[in-house]
Amino acid sequence: MRGSLRGFGRRPFRLGCFDLVMLPRLPKFPAADLRQIVAAAFAVLNPGGRLLVCTPLAPVPEAAWMEAFLETEPRWTSSRELDALLDVVPAAECASRQVVPSLDGHLNYAILRRHG
Description:
single chain; alpha+beta; Rossmann fold; globular
């Protein structure tokens, strides 16, 4: 199933509905709102389910071009910011948590698994 964050917030998902929830690109929201999104995404996982959060580590080479011509400001997340974002998931509910950089070093992949 594919959906938007806006739709995700409106649907009455119960706890334990999904085996995998992916957040491939976090929006440019305040940190508190992003933490709520991560908490809500983790809450709907089945036992043993995984949450995958992808965040850029640094500005992409095309950042200046994107700002000038696409009127969009690229966003990136430091490792410290990502840790603060993931801390919203209670340790007692998380069987494992790992952050893995992409091979090219441009992205961080955070994988959290719910206790099964």
